[in-house]
Amino acid sequence: MRLSFLLCAMAFPAVAQTDFSAMTQAERTAFGAEVRALLMDEPKLAADAMAGPNYAAEAYRDEADADLALLNDLSAEVLEGANIALFIAPDCPACVDAELELEDISKRYDIKFKLHDMSNPATVALAERLGIGEAPFYVMPTMILRGHIPDIVLVRYLTK
Question: Which run of H or E residues covers position 84?
Fold first, then answer.
């Protein structure tokens, strides 16, 4: 209620027939109390305004959007309905560890995972489409994690 009042009053002063510069002291005090109450109820409003633009994030927004679109396009092929996919390669000790840990996590938390073995040329081609050449790596619906990720970190990602 307070938010809608404040937004209307700030966005449409002509409609609200309020000239903020011509407010009486009592009106300013009441308005200030409403703004303060709103900001106490919704601190994110002030935090977002104080933070300013994140130029680094904006610079990579197009690339991030393209990556998410690629993951979305390949999701059925990569995940096949699983929560996470693991790409492994032959002669890769870290891949063995990653696979064992993911098997354990899947049993403990009832999480489905898809295993892709890069000894298969089709899997190598899929990894190349994802832009990754070195195993192990994990694919989830909204991210790719390169390298062997400790199980405690994977659990955190998978149980959010």
Answer: strand 84-88
